Give the backbone structure.
Amino acid sequence: MGLSFENVTYGDGLPAWYVAGEPGRPVIVVVHGYGGNRTATVEVGPPLRELGYGLLFPDLSYVSGDVRYSGGRREADEVGDAVRWVDENVRVPAVLLGFSGGAFASLAAVARGARPAAVVADSGFVSFRSVVAFRAHVPEIVTSLLPVVYPLVSGGGHAIDLAREIGDRPFGVPAFHIHGAADRTTPPADGSRLARLTGGRLWLLPGAGHTKAFDTDRRVYVARIDEFVRDVLG
């Protein structure tokens, strides 16, 4: 990608790439989705770096671990560790930019106490139940046993639900939700649900598929994120 970077570790020795930004500018922590790793998100880096942002591309532990997915709790805590790395090592605001499962983990991290300056969730979802129901074309109530079954098939993981994690508490962090109306992987309706749960903003793109908003118009995508960050950070 032509970016100068450092190999760093965060949390419990997990690997990440750090790209320094202009002095005082926020660092955007780019969180990959399930089934991918930090290489899947690097294309968003150059246009954000051109605007002066620093970047942190972490690998979540399931990339190299024995247990592929924990159901969200462990991933959320690792995202919180990445935010702390920025706080302790760069000492500028951290902004989360998560894709799909990375968006879910980023929102869950905030619900569990992480305090980035802002969070951008691209193609996020409320719960694994909503995703399973959407892809199986059944009512969500049909998936009510998923939280019970998931620990048995995942080696002890717990499929968390953002609605329950957030509860009646204020979300506490400005949120911007990006979703494609033609998403066939996560429910487009979850974009609206997440905006309500977090008191955040929603950008719904007609015709865009799962995590394809960036490819639809990269210039507009980066400009919308920059506008949001500048607005909430002053």
